[in-house]
Write a structure and sequence with these properties.
single chain, 9 helices
C-alpha cells in the first residue's frame, strides 16, 4: 500500500515537473523572439519596484500568497463545489484595485459566469465559456503590473508578447486543475513563480 502511494506521488511530481518544463520552454522562446524584435518591457514595472523596496515580503507574496489567491479566484470555481463563495469574496481584491475598466468588466463577467455555472445543470458549452473567460481574466489582471500610460503607448504587438507567458501559464494551470486537483494547480503556480523569479534574480533581468 505504501509503495503504491509512493508511486502515485512520484507520478504526480513528474506530471507537474513536465508541465513546468513546458512553461519554461515557452517563456524562453517568447523572450528570444522579444530580443530579436527589440521588444523592451515598460520601464515602470510595479512588481520590480515592489521587490526593490521590500524584497522578503514581495518574494513571500509572489511564491505563497499570490498563487493561492489567484487559484482560488480563477481555477477553483471551474469545477462545481461548495467553496465557490471564497472565489466571489477574493475576486473583490482585483475588482477594487484594478486601474483598468475593461479588467473590472471581464472579471465581473467571469464571476457572474462561475456563480451561474454552480447552480446550472452540467453543460460542456458553459464550462468551455467559463474556462476561456477564466484564462482571459487571469491574463488581464496582470495589466495592473504596469502603469496605464506605459501600456497605452506600448503598441499591440508588444503588448501581446508581454502577456503571452501569462496566457500560456493560464492554459497550463487550467489543464492541471481540470485533470488533477486544485492543490496541484496551486503548487504548480507557486513553483512557476519561484523558478521565474530565481532566473530573473540570477541573471539580473
Amino acid at each position: 500500500m505504501e509503495l503504491k502511494h509512493q508511486k502515485i506521488k512520484t507520478k504526480n511530481l513528474f506530471y507537474l515537473f513536465k508541465h513546468l518544463l513546458y512553461a519554461l520552454v515557452f517563456v524562453s522562446v517568447v523572450e528570444l523572439i522579444k530580443y530579436h524584435l527589440n521588444i523592451v518591457e515598460p520601464d515602470n514595472n510595479k512588481l520590480k519596484e515592489e521587490f526593490m523596496s521590500n524584497f522578503i515580503f514581495s518574494f513571500f507574496v509572489a511564491i505563497c500568497l499570490s498563487p493561492i489567491i489567484e487559484e482560488l479566484v480563477f481555477r477553483l470555481p471551474l469545477i462545481k463545489g461548495d467553496y465557490f463563495i471564497i472565489s466571489i469574496v477574493l475576486s473583490f481584491i482585483f475588482l477594487t484595485t484594478s486601474s483598468y475598466i475593461f479588467v473590472k468588466i471581464i472579471l465581473s463577467l467571469f464571476v457572474a459566469l462561475f456563480v451561474f455555472y454552480q447552480f446550472y445543470n452540467h453543460s460542456n458549452t458553459l464550462q468551455c465559456i467559463l474556462i476561456i473567460t477564466s484564462i482571459l481574466a487571469f491574463v488581464i489582471i496582470h495589466f495592473d503590473n504596469f502603469n496605464t500610460k506605459d501600456l497605452e503607448n506600448y503598441g499591440l504587438i508588444n503588448t501581446i508578447f508581454l502577456f503571452l507567458p501569462q496566457f500560456f501559464l493560464a492554459i497550463l494551470i487550467t489543464k492541471i486543475r481540470m485533470e488533477t486537483t486544485f492543490i496541484n494547480a496551486v503548487v504548480f503556480h507557486s513553483f512557476y513563480n519561484l523558478t521565474i523569479l530565481s532566473f530573473a534574480l540570477f541573471f539580473n533581468i
